[in-house]
Amino acid sequence: MERRHEKYEQLIARCRGLAPTPTAVAHPCDQSSLEGALDAARQGLIAPILVGPAARIKAVAAENRLDLAGHPIVDTAHSHESADKAVELVRLGKAEALMKGSLHTDELMGAVVRRETGLRTERRISHCFVMDVPNHPTPLMITDAAVNIAPTLADKVDIVQNAIDLAHALGAEEVRVAILSAMETVNPGVPSTIEAAALCKMADRGQITGAVLDGPLALDNAISLAAAKIKKIDSPVAGRANVLVVPDLEAGNMLAKSLTFLAGADAAGIVLGAKVPIILTSRADSVLTRLASCAVAVLMAKARREQAAKAVS
């Protein structure tokens, strides 16, 4: 039996020896968000810049006996200003990652996507869960289960490419992307099967790069070699997928939560497609899951630096 959390521990171990990533932590004004940032700092993953009302942050630290020594605080009046200031730190080059504190996700993402002052790129912003599923051999990535409600085919091109880039940053030797639907055949009555087929052909034509894609695939055919064999699906992805692309947010949310509550999986979360990785954590996350989310961001930030250096040279 596989030791639980082994895959997250391996991700965190890959960050050892790297300099802590400067990270703007937006509004860490409760115990879980402040402690999560400080835990990641103690592990050497991030160098947090705490952005929020200084008096509140210090009060939370004092109440919970958390040591703020060495961690700068950027004072703000309220959560909206915290989001704006955190994004500004990234734009000024003072932070290479963004981390959600105790403010609402919509507040943070509103500052991120603002056209004039945000962190948009040419890519569609998307969310990716990196899941540690007990007894599954590799981390399992699910996208998009938190940002894009009903993505179009054009949106899905970016969602897939964002996930592929992340998989490479996390050290995947081969990225195998399953485009999920309810069946493994193209059916004009099921739009997600049409989009799956289109995405696979786009990959064939070089419009999506860095991975092998197959779809439509039902979930069992994507992750179970036995199921794929029964259905006689001959594919390098079927039964071996490490990236699962869901039809819409509802399907992704249900899949991720099913794995969490029925299979004992943990779900580290990150937002991709902005100028820097964005760490989204939940108050229900375990300490290890929070650290894993930070580790994912650290490895993504490292890949971005290397890509930028390569482009300059």
Notes on the structure:
The protein has helices spanning 6-14, 31-42, 54-63, 79-91, 105-113, 153-169, 191-204, 219-223, 225-230, 249-263, 287-312; strands spanning 21-26, 46-52, 73-75, 97-100, 126-132, 140-143, 176-180, 212-217, 243-245, 266-272, 278-279. The chain has 313 residues and is α/β, with parallel strands linked by helices. Strands 3-2-1-4-11-10-5-6-9-7-8 form an 11-stranded mixed β-sheet, sandwiched between helices. Helix 3 links the parallel strand 2 (46-52) and strand 3 (73-75). It is globular, with a radius of gyration of 20 Å.
Strand order of the largest sheet: 3-2-1-4-11-10-5-6-9-7-8
CATH architecture of the largest domain: 3-Layer(aba) Sandwich
- Main sheet attributes: strand count, strand direction, barrel closure: 11 strands, mixed
Oligomer: single chain
Computed structural class: alpha/beta
Helix content: 40-55%
Mind telling me the C-alpha Rg?
Answer: 20 Å
Q: State the shape.
A: globular
Annotated CATH topology of the largest domain: Isopropylmalate Dehydrogenase
